[in-house]
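Weekly puzzle thread! Below is a chain. First person to post its structure in token form gets bragging rights.
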Amino acid sequence: MSTETLPALDEGLADVRPTARAPYRRLLGGATIALFAVLIPMALLWAPMDAKQGNPQRIFYIHVPAAWIGFLAFFVVFVGSIGVLRTGKRRWDDIASSSAEIGTIFTTAVLITGPLWGRPVWGVYWTWDPRLTSYLLLWLIYVSYLVLRGYVPEPSRRARYSAVLGIVGFLDVPIVYLSTRWWRSEHPTQFVFERGGLPTAMLITLLIGIATFTVFYAYLMTVRVRTGRMQEALDEEVFA
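Winning reply:
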């Protein structure tokens, strides 16, 4: 990079830098730490031990919120993808791609914690249960989305192709959610929030877990979107 490029690059990043000091990012980061500080002792100590599954059931308070974020992240990909196809604006692609990257992390966490929970309860790490299989498919769609973005160098085509996959891939989310009702499954068919689903202490702990992971996701999104905008400004200045 030549010295003549540096002033232009500095000017191009000027609109991005202030977001680094945005109060909401610090608030989200602080709230994430505080919520995890509450969730961990609640999950390990306060919530009662399950009478049938024992202590391994406590993975539930990480596993289920992570699965929820997998759904939420793909919904954001879905909305961002529609925005890309309707407007063609880069910011929608930034939102969709950022959410896909973060969603991949959380779906991976689900596929790790699930077998760790399943081994002492079911006796095996993995079975081709409908929910497990459909969630594995969701993870593969996430990975395919990211691989597609890596193979299409031209930004506008990359955004359009990814948007199509993001919209079509979202169809797997309701399949995962309803899989235990449509097919015979090792997972419980009764939904968590239905009457009689969970004891009060377990339900409160789960809700704290969902809130914690949701705030954590929001924090990661603000960081990742900002990084994407900085990269965009860098590319425009250096390769223009």
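Puzzle host: Confirmed. Bonus trivia for everyone else. Confidence is low (pLDDT under 50) at residues 1-20.
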